[in-house]
Specification:
This protein has 138 residues and is an alpha+beta fold. The protein has a domain of 96 residues: Alpha-Beta Plaits (2-Layer Sandwich), CATH 3.30.70.100. A four-stranded antiparallel sheet has the order 2-3-1-4. The longest helix has 18 residues. The model has no long low-confidence stretch (mean pLDDT 91).
Length: 138
């Protein structure tokens, strides 16, 4: 299995994701890897770590998600791996529930998101976003 962290989706990935079938609420699993030091695209100096820059973004996103009727369900630091093997473990896991694909798209394209996304880019070395659908359980 090849795992490749990315900071932004390619145009093809975005088109495939947002072009998918609308089927109601979903939970996005975010596996996050941070830069050791935040690096802002405009070159502005920063004393922030990547995790600190991302935390600024994360608080803004929490407000946006809640404004859409969603909820940040969980966020926590990765502290170990019991099963499986990866070359480089993620730093944090976050779970966010969205009411719909349309709501997620609205948030992603909003001016409010645009106003905070520079903190995301400054802090992230890469991530995986995994869309999940509630099931019948196991």
């Amino acid at each position: 299995m090849n795992v490749e962290n990315q900071v932004m989706p390619s145009p093809q990935q975005a088109m495939a994701f947002f072009g998918g079938t609308e089927d109601g609420p979903f939970v996005m699993v975010n596996l996050l890897k941070f830069k050791s030091k935040a690096e802002y695209e405009d070159g502005s100096p920063s004393d922030l770590t990547g995790a600190e820059a991302y935390a600024i973004y994360g608080e803004g996103v929490r407000k946006l998600v809640e404004g859409l009727g969603g909820k940040v369900r969980y966020s926590g630091d990765v502290t170990g791996l019991l099963l499986g093997e990866v070359d480089d473990l993620w730093d944090m896991v976050a779970l966010a529930e969205y009411p719909s694909l349309a709501a997620f798209r609205e948030m992603a394209l909003s001016p409010a998101m645009h106003a905070i996304e520079h903190h995301r880019k400054a802090g992230l070395a890469g991530q995986l976003n995994i869309r999940t659908k509630p099931g019948a359980g196991f």
